[in-house]
Amino acid sequence: MSTVVLLAVTGLGLGALYFLVASGLSLTYGLLRVLNFAHGAFLTVGAYTAWLIVTRAGGASIGAFGLALLGALAAGAAIGAAVETALIRPLYRRHIEQVLVTVGLGLAIAALIQGIFGADPRPVPVPAWMRGVTVVLGASVPNTRPLLIAAGLVTFTCLTAFLSFTRWGLIVRAGVENREMVRALGIDVQRAFTLVFAIGGMAAALGGALSAAYFGTVDPERGTVMLIYAFIVVVIGGLGSIAGSAAAAALVGLIQQFANYYGSVWWGFPAAGDLAVVLLLAAVLLVRPEGLARSAS
Amino acid sequence: MKRRAAVAGLFVLLCAVPLIPLRAVGVFPAPLNAPGTLQILALCLVFGGVALSYDLLFGYTGLLSFGHALFFAAGAYAANIALSRWGWGPASAVAVAAAAGVALPLAIGAVALRVGGIAFAMVTLAFAQAGSIVAFSDPGHLTGGEEGLGLVVTRLPALLVGVVNTRYLYWLALAYLTVVALASWWLVNSRPGRIWQAIRENEARAEVLGVRAYPHKLMSFVAGGFLAALGGVVYVFVVGGTAPGITTANLSLALLVMVVLGGAGSLWGAVLGGALYEYLDLRLVALAGSPQVAGLPGWLRVPLGQPLFILGTLFILFVVFFPGGIAAIPERIRAAAARHAPAAAAGESA
Amino acid sequence: MNAVPVLAVDGLAVQFGESRVLHGATFAVEEGGTTALLGRNGAGKTTTLRAILGLVPHRGRVRLDGEDVGGLPAHAVVQRRVGYVPENRDVFAGLTVAENLRLAERDGRPRYDLVYDVFPDLRPRGAQRAGTLSGGQQQMLAIARALLNPNRILLIDEPTKGLAPAVVARVVDVLARIGREVTILLVEQNLAAARRLAERAIVLDQGRVVYAGSLGAFLADREGAHRHLGVALDAAP
Description:
Order of helices and strands of chain A: HHHHEHEEHHHHEHHHH
Shape of chain A: globular
Strand order of the largest sheet of chain B: 1-2
Mean pLDDT of chain B: 86
Number of helices of chain A: 13
Oligomer: heterotrimer
Number of strands of chain B: 2
Radius of gyration of chain A: 19 Å
Helix content of chain A: over 70%
Largest interface: A-B, 43 and 43 residues
Low-confidence stretches of chain A: 293-297
Number of helices of chain B: 16
Structural class of chain A: mainly alpha
Number of strands of chain A: 4
Strand content of chain A: under 5%
Strand content of chain B: under 5%
Shape of chain B: globular
Mean pLDDT of chain A: 89
Strand order of the largest sheet of chain A: 1-4
């Protein structure tokens, strides 16, 4: 029983992390129809920004960690907006080139970070309570899991509120459905593009910073790994849908954890969960390819 | 005719490299016919061929696949497992790899090509990732997991074993590239190749004209996958083993970079892109450690030491400014020259 | 009557890839009243509207109240007080009726009173998702969006397409009422509706303007009308 609880909480914690990375991707793909391969790099930038702040602040206090999160959010917003303005916007209407450019950017940023900080994972000083455990239903749950889940819920609430109650959120929702009609109503959708990229960058960077706490390290490759899971969540959850991303992220996280564990215990195959979610991606795409091709209306 | 003469001349030159004791200072660490240099060149030739195999899909047929490295890795791992785990002979190992090189792209392509565009790209990425997970997991102790699998050479002909015989590996790589080049040239200049290009231009219109896109796309996918798998076999010999790094999305993305840099839709462009990428990837690290570069300020030295940073940045610049890649540069120079000399041209064309 | 026309189009040409859809169309729409833009399928009517709005790249000149708007992005053209009701209505199905209207608020004072007066059906349905509306109701919503702001001209594309006859009649009534106060350029295949709403006609055939003048006179010339529109006028209700 305690195993199941631990697996469930870990699955939901990882799911929250996937949601953070995927939500931005879902919005940018939904609105701009650009599959941003540099999104993983946003995560890495957030992770290293957080790591830099925490190590400079001298220690693993809550204050330093809070500051690190804020720093990551700022860095994410900045890089998201910069990428949209400098690379995506000039390639308006050239969709394939937009995707290619993000591929190159993802490679370049990961390589640059590797060059500056080294390829090896760097340890992250984490506040004491995060290293602790809480006993839930007989299971010893590391505190990072609920932290991630909480962060995921807060982000979900903020994003949903933004989309439902603000004018720009309305514009984004409409734009995901029919970009051209939004322009035909006299609205400059271009500004929404930049905004959405900035939001996506923020969410991914937050995910990166929290992943630094969760895994206890930062490394240049994690962004690429997370990106694949983010793609899976976006495809399953439906583009432009925050609620869909949240549900899909929880599902993917849970499947991965449970299948990895039982795959290891029953068949000596500890990557069974990783494989399962990847094949799930292929299956969903083959059954419902229009999920990626047309707007969700 | 001039073209063919140039290509033939280049081929002869490439054959002769292991016999040339020339020192290309800065370009290679040792003379051209030294084993270290020959291995670098061999890898450049191999990836030139693999990039060309990807160009058939992406450049000619317009299939943006993010999983091409899977077939390359499948060929490599199949040959390596046959030789090193099962103790088979080289001919059988190549046969297994060739069979995998047909069966795997056929199976995956049959499924993935049911969708198009970005969905197709993501499906190929998913399958490649699945393959990578399997390789890392070391099922049945076949793949060697994270550490990879060293090549067991007991049943190989003596000619391919040992540092002193690197020249034969180089010639093997050259033979591979030649085979891929000839096959590709024949394919793109024949009916399938023209249909591929029609599909790339406008699939809907091709279908209206009576072309069934799906079987032709599948043919392109399998041809490219098969040629990549053969490249994998040669790779195993040249490198002496397989590591799961070759199954990751990074290599598939690298192939994309190679083809775009060199020139998608151009045969020699893709080969050049592959060779150049591999060269930079291998040599830039050494260059970064050299005394000339070590003296540079940090903000210049660090990026220079990261091949993927240079290549990624070049890739972005090429996508935005030189969509035709390096292969399009001669054409652009010619066009620019024509624009700047209209009077002379008008006078001549009387 | 030297007033500058509300809309003046000069040598408008649109090319998609290798096919040219518009070959240098030239016409003007004066202020007041409704002008029908006629032509058979593929003549270039919808493309003309989209080019005026800046939704498709085009060559030639487009002037709104004398101002050249040819190079402007679509949202800038629309902000110069152009209303658009597209061919497929294009309401945002995932948004509510109220949200659809709110999105359309462009200038300072949206005229909700006017909109709910003309379209009383929309008022109680504010919270209803637009995708669940009937075809006729969606058409009303699409027109309401264009009515919400005071516009110099409305570009309306086949508003009666795909609607049941009873609904068509209601749409025509609404457009007649609106047309008394704002200039309308109306693309319509339904000749009876066009006859009821418009005084003038501009006729496109294969991307060129072949007639600009009184609608009545054009339809009276049965042979010419048949040639350009491809319909037997006797069959029109």
